[in-house]
Amino acid sequence: MDYDEHSALLYKRAREAVDAIRAYQPDDEKLHGLVAFHARDIARKVAAHLRLHRHERPAGYEPVVKEGWSTPTGRSRTGLHDEPIASYRAPVTNKARI
Asked: What does DSSP assign to residue 53?
């Protein structure tokens, strides 16, 4: 969820949750304690409500080929003329040559 794009809705739902608790506890000091005590439960309920009403839009991606693009090819490898090609699975004895 994009919190920046939907911040107004999130604040609205949080305000509604606090207002519902305020109906039972009008004292602001006790209200703060109740909200702090039940914060996780409130967050779960708000998240469940938002999940029920979510809309998903599939992202549309189109590849764009720019100038200078070339197909990847194999890498060139160099080695000493008198040294045999070693398997990549073989343990390396001279680690300075990695």
From this structure: T
Q: What is the pTM of this model?
A: 0.43
Residues 16-75 pLDDT 10s = 888 888 888 888 888 888 888 888 988 888 788 878 888 777 778 888 877 776 777 777
- Encoding tokens for residue 49? 């409500």
Among residues 32, 10, 12, the alpha carbon closest in space to that of 21 is found at 32
As a whole number of angstroms, the distance between CA 95 and CA 40 comes to 53
The one-character DSSP state at 92 is: P
Q: What angle do CA 11, 14, 18 make, to 5 degrees?
A: 135
- Structure tokens given for 88: 């990549």
